[in-house]
C-alpha cells in the first residue's frame, strides 16, 4: 500500500516503513508503507561575527552536592526500549537503514530497531520500529487486536541511552496516511517516535494500520535526580 504525504513548499524525500510481522520471503515486501517525509529547508545563514570579539564570561563552578547527600547518578545506558505501562521491555538490537526506494525493513522479529539516516534528511529525532502480530513480536503490546493503542499520553518511555521520554501523542493511523505530527516530532533533537503495526483479526500479519506513538525526551541533566 503506497501513499505520497507531502507538505507544501518543501522538497520531498521518500521514506517507507515496515511495521507488521514478516511474511514469507516470497511476499515480504508487500506489507510496506511508503510515505513522503518532507525534508527540512536549509537554515538561514548566520551573520558573520563582529570583528571585535566579545569576552566570554567566566564559567560558574559546578555546585557541590549538599552535605550528607550523594551526587545525582548518571543515567546508565540499557540498550532497551521500555514502556512500563504496557509491559514492553525490548532490546534495541539493530540500526535499521533507509534502503533502496526509501524502504525501512527491520530484520529482527523479537526486538526493536532504530532507524538511521534520518538526520541527513533533516530529522534529528529518534525513530524506533518493531514488528507486531503474533506472541513474540514486541509491537503486539502497543495495541489491542482491532482496537486502540494501549499506550496513553503521559506514559513514560525508557530509552536505550538511559534517558526517559514522556508520551505526548498517540494515534492508530491508516498506513497510507501517516500523520504530519510524526515528522514534526522528529524535526526536534529530543523528539522520539515509536511505530509498529496494529494487527487485525482478519489479517494479523498484513494490517492496513499503524500505531504511532510520539514522545518528548527529557534532557539528560533533567532526567537525573
Protein architecture, described:
By secondary structure, the chain is mainly beta. The protein is 5% helix and 29% strand. It is built from two helices and eleven strands. It has helices spanning 180-186, 220-223, and strands at residues 12-17, 33-38, 80-83, 88-96, 103-104, 112-115, 126-130, 156-158, 164-174, 191-197, 209-217. The strands form two sheets. Strands 3-4-6-7-10-11-9-8 form an eight-stranded mixed beta sheet, with helices on one face. It has a three-stranded mixed beta sheet with strand order 2-1-5, with no helix packed on it. A hairpin with a 5-residue loop joins strand 8 and strand 9 (164-174). It is globular and about 45 Å long. The termini are far apart.
What key phrases describe this protein's structure?
eight-stranded mixed sheet, 225 residues, 2 helices, mainly beta, 5% helix
Relative strand content:
25-35%
Helical segment count:
2
Overall number of strands? 11
Q: How far apart are the termini?
A: 46 Å
Strand order across the biggest sheet? 3-4-6-7-10-11-9-8
Question: Using only CA atoms, what is the Rg?
Answer: 20 Å
- Counting copies of identical and different chains, the oligomeric state is single chain
Principal-axis shape: globular
Summarize the entry for a quick read:
The chain is mainly beta.
Helix and strand topology:
Layout: E1 12-17, E2 33-38, E3 80-83, E4 88-96, E5 103-104, E6 112-115, E7 126-130, E8 156-158, E9 164-174, H1 180-186, E10 191-197, E11 209-217, H2 220-223
Parallel strand pairs: 1-5, 4-6, 7-10
Antiparallel strand pairs: 1-2, 3-4, 6-7, 8-9, 9-11, 10-11
